[in-house]
Amino acid sequence: MANWFKALGKTRNLFKETLGGIFSRDKDLDEATLEELEEELLAADVAPRLAAEVIAALDKARRGGNRSRRDVLKQVLIDQLAQTTPFTFSQLPPNACLLIVGVNGSGKTTTTAKLAHLALEEGIDPLMGAADTFRAAGSDQLRIWAEMVGCEVVAGKQGSDAAAVAYDALDACIARNRDLVVIDTAGRMHNKAPLMDELKKIVRSLNKRVPEAPQETWIVLDATIGQNALMQARFFNETIPLTGIVITKLDGSSKAGCLFSIKKELDVPIVFTGLGERKEDLVPFEAEAFVDGLLGIKDDDTGDDN
Amino acid sequence: MFDHLSNSLQKTFKNLRGYGKLSEKNVTDALREIRLALLEADVHFQVVKDFIRQVKEKALGQEVLASVSPGQQFTKCVQDELTELLGRDHKAFDLSANPTMIMMLGLHGAGKTTTTGKLAAKFSRAGRKVLLVACDIRRPAAVEQLNVLAGQVGVDVVNPNPGESVPELGMRARDRAMTQGYNLVIFDTGGRFQVDDELVRELEELRDMVNPQNTVLVVDAAMGQESVNVAQTFHERVNLTGLILTKLDGDARGGAALSIQSVVGVPIHLVGVGEKTEDLEDFHPDRLASRILGMGDVVTLVEKAQDMVDETSMAKMEKQLLKGDLNFEDMLSQMQQMKKLGPIDKLMEMMPGMPQVSAEERQRMADQGKVQSRRFEAIILSMTPKERRKPHVINAKRKQRIARGAGTRVKDVNDLIKQFNQAKKMTKKLKKQQKKLLRFSK
Q: What are the chain A neighbours of B249 within 8 Å (beta carbons)?
């Protein structure tokens, strides 16, 4: 939790008044305040239709009860995210394969390295596969990370076949008897059919080595992206079924309110959150901490914004 | 691009066109749709609020309600306001200084390094001697990435020395540019959040050291509501002179561009539309506004055609067409010219009415078109020169031989001949019309 608030702290200072602040006002929830609240949700990239629904629910609660108004809003939002049981690497079968996918610039390579670091921390013996064979110096980036994290990497040349590199990585994982291989793929625009076909090909080639592979397929979503994040998640999920979401760059001022509608539509667990550039800046996702960050509620729960 | 916004706005206007006159309720209903569409397009909520208010004021004015076709009036109203929002004029880089300095900055993963490579390609094509400076000293392999791109484009790079700070590196690069006669220097800085004070200070120091004429923010077209805060803060700290919008080849609706333009008011110079170094295009707010409203981007299409198709063969083709005797050689060269224009789905995006077709559907149509044109090309190439010049000699036996040569069925050959005959009929019509016109003018 501490990590969350350290990272989110600088965000809150920027806001003139956060949702927490609005609630701490000594004022009733009139129409103007409700509109202000809706705008704050919109500013957090919550889908416009969903924001309207949430405000309608809040309006009802205003008439109904004596529960704290902030708690109502907070609960409505947390319910949308439906807390999931935390992910552990030890729940994976031996020689498991974790495939990392996403659009360009979302933070796949950094996340891959951080995941390898987390696995090592958990006492799991990982290997990384650098299947980003397209981007200039894509595999170099993972190689440098590999040294920082202390994890081996299987890489191909720039321009070589990504599916072949992925196959080799999984093959090496089995041959060297590692617990896990985390495979980084090239960024691809979800609306480009040939690139999405390439992703299917990667999965097919993994299937050839181990029919169940990849056991986990996670999409990396950038918190600074707006409503398009839903399209990204939807298209990738249609191409290869996703089993997890990693939300990165939540240490900036963006709130990633798009996660509510993504969770609602796809029902895929949000597993990890990226909170910085260092290898240890990846933490398990916590719905309550996320909503508190979005509402600007501090961990001492006073609701004010100092 | 902007698919969804186009779709919902078009739907709204279709509804509006059904009415003879607009009531206040019609306008309010339409505006509610537009508000939602704009919000879903990631336009900042405050910008949306102002936009809706302005349009409503105009739309409820007398001239609209009393006009003959209120639906069209309303469409124009919205389009005008949208163009206004996007900034009226396209502005280019300030290239007056020698050497010209361009500082690139933005959030992580916005596409700064890729865009730097594209700019290097663009300016070095234009005959400038370009020097790149790898100022991203934090992201692993960022320096390598820039070096690979520079190698592809064929320009020089200044790399950081161990322990060198970014301003020191900037200074060294500037000195080198001065002494070695470079015209244009691009500083590729590392990704950073606008709230990271220490890193933003580094940008200020770099700026003070090299005095760039251009300070360019690189923005992901899919960026959410924070686009305004991000751009505003960077603008306050380092004084932005322009924007480059990246990843517009995705299906993001691009509201960030609208938001930043209307709040911060810096021009959008260029847009990134792909992963290759040539995938960088000029930005035109007026065209983009029409595109948002589903009116197509014919001007860009025409310019693209003029750019790519060599003029002599165009002139020849025109002459042939007017003579009215089209043959398969003309058809083949026409098809090859079309290919030069680029992927069909990108072209389709620019055609009027096409934004109504979803991105997937476009892709499917384009794939189909590609298969067919490849097949037709193979068939024409399997013809003898005589057959190409005098299509009427092609009989059943020749058709069989051609189909075998092209690896297709006779039916495909027949399809091609059918299309060819239609095209020929068209040119004959054109010829007749031209003759009539000539008679009139005499």
A: 189, 192
Predicted complex ipTM: 0.87
For the entire predicted model, the pTM comes to 0.77
Q: Could you report the per-residue pLDDT of A245-280, keeping only the tens digit for each?
A: 999 999 999 999 999 999 999 999 999 999 999 999
- CA distances (Å), B275 to each of A103, A133, B342, B343, in order? 12, 13, 14, 14
Exposure string over A36-67, b if 16+ CB within 10 A, otherwise e: ebbbbbbbbbbbbebbbebbeebeebeeeeee
Picking from A141, A157, A222, A224 by the largest number of B CB atoms within 10 A of its own CB, the best residue to mutate is A224
Question: What is the band of A6 on the pLDDT scale with cuts at 50, 70, 90?
Answer: low
Cβ within 8 Å, pair A189-B256: no
Domain locations along chain B: 3-85, 100-283, 304-441
Cβ distance A231 to B251 less than 8 Å, yes or no, reads yes
Locate the chain A residue with the closest alpha carbon to B275.
Answer: A135
Q: Which residues of A touch B360 (CB under 8 A)?
A: 191, 193
CATH architecture of B3-85: Up-down Bundle (1.20)
Residue B405 has which token pair?
């040569």
Whole-number Å distance between alpha carbons of B225 and B253 = 13
pLDDT digits (tens, 9 = 90+) for A86-141: 899 999 999 999 999 999 999 999 999 999 999 999 999 999 999 998 888 888 99
- Select from B226, B230, B249 the Cβ nearest to the Cβ of A189: B249
Choose among B39, B138, B252: nearest Cβ to A228: B252
Q: Which residues from A are below 8 Å from B273, CB to CB? A: none
Those residues of chain B that have pLDDT short of 70 are: 1-22, 61-76, 88-90, 287-325, 340-359, 430, 433-442
Note whether A253 contacts B144, CB cutoff 8 Å.
no
- Quick check: A270 and A81 in contact, CB under 8 A? yes
Contact check, Cβ <8 Å, A14/B224: no
Provide the CATH topology of domain A92-291.
Answer: Rossmann fold (3.40.50)
